[in-house]
Amino acid sequence: MNASQSLFLTLAACAVVLSAAARATADESSFPFAIQTLNANRDATDMSWLNVCPAGKSGFVTTKDGHFVDGAGKRIRFLGVNLCFAAAFPEHADADRIAARLAKLGVNCVRLHHMDNQYPPGGIWDPTYRDKQHLDTGQLDRLDYLIFALKRHGLYVDLNLHVSRQFSEADGFPDTEKLPHYDKGVDNFEPRMIALQRDYARDLLTHLNPYTKTRYTDEPAIAIIEINNENSLVNYCLDGSIHTLPAYYLSELKKQWNDWLKARYRTTAALRKSWEAGSEPIGDNILSNSDLANGTAHWTLEAPTPAQATMSVEDGGPTPGTRCLHAALTRVGLRSWDFQVHQTGLDLVEGAPYVLRFWARANQPRNVVVAVMLDRDPWTTAGLARTIQLPTTWKRYEFSFTANQTATNHNRASFNLQSEVGEVWIAGVELRRGSGGRLPNSASLEAANIDLPADSFVAPQREDFLAFAAETERNYAVGMRSYIKKTLRARSLVVDTQVTYGGMAGLYRESLLDFGDIHSYWQHPSFPRKAWDSTDWNIRNTPMVRALGSDTLTHMALCRLQGKPFTVSEYNHPAPSDYSAECVPMLAAFAAQQDWDGIFLFDYHSSAGDWDRDRISGYFSIDSHPAKITLMPAAAAIFRRADVEPASASAVLEFPTKLIPGELRTHGASVSAAWQALGFAQRDSMAAGTAVRFVDTAARPSIKRSNTVSIPNVTWNCDRDNDAPATFTINSPASRGVIGFASGREIKLSGLTIAPRSDFAAITVTALDGKPVEQSAHLLISAVGRVENTGMGWNADRTSVSNKWGTEPVVAEGIKARISLDAKVGHATVYALDGGGGRMQPVACNAASGKLDIDLGPQWKTLWYEAVIERASQ
């Protein structure tokens, strides 16, 4: 998560605008429900007993058999949250209360993020200096005490180094305002930037914490040191933005590129021979009606219901006298690919080079996936799949690729315009057989004047450039890890950045570090005109439970490294989604079934003070969000207590290391494309634990599947019909539940039936004593639906509230459901719980005929319940 994003995490309400949804707060199904954000009382929602205090009591966290273990060699999983900006530097009294509160929620690791962005109070830099190279002593003291408080309550720390520091002229760098945000990509190769990152690591990690009496290099409560957040030089090379760097930085990169080429080829003659092998002249355009003289003939618009879109031909193309396709989406579909323009029935020659050229623009910046792929099942790529961001003015694009895994007369040139309301214009589309650019006669290794290749260059040139970028960022990552571990002698686990940054090269890069990490968000807010404009944004506001196969969870599963721990250090279903309640239990259950090692919600808090607020404060912070917090104890049991068992079946993608540059050239930063090319669909990860292993001997990728058949604790039933039931069920002995659309149905689990009577709900039943639910004497039941602030100013489509986030208190929908427990019960008392987890009034229940029936509903004005059960004598 970058700093510009996080600066809006705590958007204040500017007005109270009643919408139809907001007026529902007054009806009988809704009620105020404020989370007591600093409550650490010992009650039914308290999961602090899972933590071993102090954190690191038995020594440093290490890895064994592909998982985290504590100092005693015992398996440990992290349920974590992020503290960002000023939240990483709280006052001492607040730090104690925050640590106790997080422990109660079942959290045992905190990721300290965006510490390096600002001067106080939001950051660590000393404001008496113009540069960002000197640590502020007051901020260090607050950080030290926070880590001390977290440690006392059994919470480990993931300490982030470079997240969002932006160098300036004060630091000795020119034209920094023209660099990517936070110098990303550039800081992988610019020597002095790397040196300053090492200086920061030294100053922070070797600093003595006066409260713990240890340096961070020697502090076992520091479980993880993260080198660089969301960063990859390869990504900037893939999207072409590397060519826009100021001359000072391009000159340095070009020097390193020429040095790399010289080490690889030694002579210009050898270089030319390699780069010109298999080249051929550009041939005829194989697309029909490219000039659109025949209207939309041969062009197809794909926008299945409920999407609504149009396609027409207009004058006003990029050059005088040319025409263009105009595609407009007025209502989004169910999936990200439900708005496409393509030409089908193409015949491509396997292994031949091709060039795709076109012009495009949009009414607002938007991502588009350009692909050459099969036009029939399994719809896999046939050599090209690239994500580009369209500008609002005409831009010409050119991509070279080699056709692979084609089907005779069943390929298509496709523009996946992404399911976001808006308009796109496309013109002059050409698909021609042949190679792109050539090495100029004046270029040579001896003169060290070989330019950085563009997308249009022939395959060997492009693959060499991507191999150079991948090797450069690997050297950076391995070098930083070596400095931290060997020079500074830090004993914590070290990760570079997230595995998907750099595509398959990113996965391989992280295989050289201690574990793999990833970030993902379901329906992250989109900003159509200006990045992070607090008044101009939207979310799609559709449920993930209805999107199996295009969801975040099964996508992340394809990005795990075999034999390495795997964490998700940022995850959320951002507010103000009506379906936020699916976030926490689905993540916890899926992660447990995949046997991952850490999951972190982004974020918990990101501002100075305001720790006792009782409203939803913005897109990401969960501290006061009832639909997230009331499901955290269930998540702790599901994931940390390991109530959900790992899948017994497995599928491992074995990928030859030597094919990584070609994979990058063909599929860009995608990892899932390699799975799909072998017939493994994203949704298949529901049936097997998945991972990627890099191999040196194989000629081509393959998937190795186990012979075991998995009988999972987790089942995801999803029909793409928007009106059909869609459910995600959890059926383990001590944790059970259902998330999704099941109103009017009976969800029969082992010894338990859940009968929801509300449209959408997340309902979990947790045995607090760890026994099977039907044998437990103490249950926690969470039943959560829609929540929102009072007076949220929703638009007509319910996709944005602009800056009208409303006021406290949060208003919650009371979920109607019957919980029927198959158990001989002598006596049972069920309590409605308040926003802190304390008991309120008893809830009516009925124990008869070998069953315990509990009727949940809005009359109890709660999202969670406690059941205390005495068994009948036998």
Task: Explain briefly what this protein structure is.
This protein is an alpha+beta fold.
Beta-strand fraction estimate: 25-35%
Q: Summarize the biggest pleated sheet.
A: 8 strands, parallel
Strand order of the largest sheet: 20-9-6-5-4-23-22-21
Structural Rg = 28 Å
Structural class given helices, strands, pairing?
alpha+beta
SS field, number of helical segments: 16
Look at the structure and give the mean pLDDT: 93
Oligomer: single chain
- The poorly predicted ranges are 3-26
What shape does the CA trace take? globular
Helix content: 10-25%
Looking at this structure, what is the CATH superfamily of the domain at 74-277 and 453-522? Glycosidases
Distance between the termini: 56 Å
Give a written overview of the molecule.
- The structure is a single chain.
- The protein starts with a helix and ends with a strand.
- The longest helix is centred in the middle third of the chain and has 29 residues, at 459-487.
- Among the domains are: 74-277 and 453-522, TIM Barrel, CATH 3.20.20.80; 300-433, Jelly Rolls, CATH 2.60.120.260; 650-705, no CATH class.
- The protein is an alpha+beta fold.
- A hairpin with a 7-residue loop joins strand 11 (308-315) and strand 12.
- An eight-stranded parallel sheet has the order 20-9-6-5-4-23-22-21. Strands 27-28-29-32-33-41-37-38 form an eight-stranded antiparallel sheet, covered by helices on one side. A five-stranded antiparallel sheet has the order 10-13-18-15-16.
- The protein is built from 16 helices and 41 strands.
